[in-house]
Amino acid sequence: EADIYQTPRYLVIGTGKKITLECSQTMGHDKMYWYQQDPGMELHLIHYSYGVNSTEKGDLSSESTVSRIRTEHFPLTLESARPSHTSQYLCASSESRRAFFGQGTRLTVV
Amino acid sequence: QKEVEQDPGPLSVPEGAIVSLNCTYSNSAFQYFMWYRQYSRKGPELLMYTYSSGNKEDGRFTAQVDKSSKYISLFIRDSQPSDSATYLCATSNSGNTPLVFGKGTRLSVIA
């Protein structure tokens, strides 16, 4: 069973605030990903990492940043939250091309 | 053209029906194929994983890959209300690139 954890599960925050969404995995996977998904809509890859100190931007233009200082930890930061950032954010890690997802963080910016 | 095309549905079937979910893809370099199930407000969970062409069966689920026609399918036998979810296909090539996902098909199994 995959062990990948996201916190918080739900977050309501005011416009302009800086927020960090946490993602941790205990499987030792080198590859980690962040996806954005609006309700009932497709997944959009926003950032990924293939190892420590390696990060890449995905297909969706995003105002977020990520860091990968430790293998198990891949946080996503929004420097200044806006209502357009309201969405679900999903973290995943993979080995042998099998990706395992966390339960997601549902972010609402008011 | 998107690399992976998937009919978003929604698809509604009676309990006990055989369900067929499908995706097409355009990149002949894709060799790894996956199906994910996503319940409402949850993260996707890996359901089936196949490499190259052929069939793979796991309980009531069968994944089928036809590389000649670039077509992947998921069959659900004896469908149950608990199968009601969104099903996403995903694929990858042999290189070091992220998975490519379909848009997902929303399935409802009616008791």
Q: Could you say which overall geometry of chain A the principal axes of the C-alpha atoms support? A: globular
Helix count from the secondary structure assignment of chain B: 0
Secondary-structure element order of chain B, N to C: EEEEEEEEEEE
Measured between the Cα atoms of the first and last residue of chain B, the distance is 37 Å
* Average pLDDT, all residues of chain A: 93
Distance between termini of chain A?
36 Å
Sheet with the most strands, sense and barrel status of chain A = 7 strands, mixed
Count of β-strands of chain B: 11
Q: Oligomerization state of this entry?
A: heterodimer
Give the rounded overall mean pLDDT of chain B. Answer: 93
Name some characteristics of this structure.
heterodimer, A: mainly beta, seven-stranded mixed beta sheet, four-stranded antiparallel beta sheet, 11 strands, B: 111 residues, six-stranded mixed beta sheet, five-stranded antiparallel beta sheet, 0% helix
Folded structure, characterized:
The complex is a heterodimer of chains A (110) and B (111). Chain A is mainly beta and 110 residues long. Chain A contains no helices and eleven strands. Chain A has strands at 4-7, 10-13, 19-25, 31-37, 44-51, 54-57, 64-66, 76-78, 87-95, 98-101, 105-109. In chain A, the strands form two sheets. In chain A, strands 2, 4, 5, 6, 9, 10 and 11 form a seven-stranded mixed beta sheet that branches. In chain A, strands 1-3-8-7 form a four-stranded antiparallel beta sheet, with no helix packed on it. The relative contact order of chain A is 0.34. Chain B is mostly beta strands and 111 residues long. Chain B has no helices and eleven strands. In chain B, strand 7 (61-66) and strand 8 (71-76) form a beta hairpin. Chain B starts with a strand and ends with a strand. Classes of the chains: A mainly beta (110), B mainly beta (111). Chain A binds chain B through residues 2, 6, 33, 40-43, 45, 48, 50, 58, 88, 90, 92, 94, 97-104, 106, and chain B through 32, 34, 36, 41-46, 49, 86, 88, 90, 92, 96, 98-99, 101-104, 106.
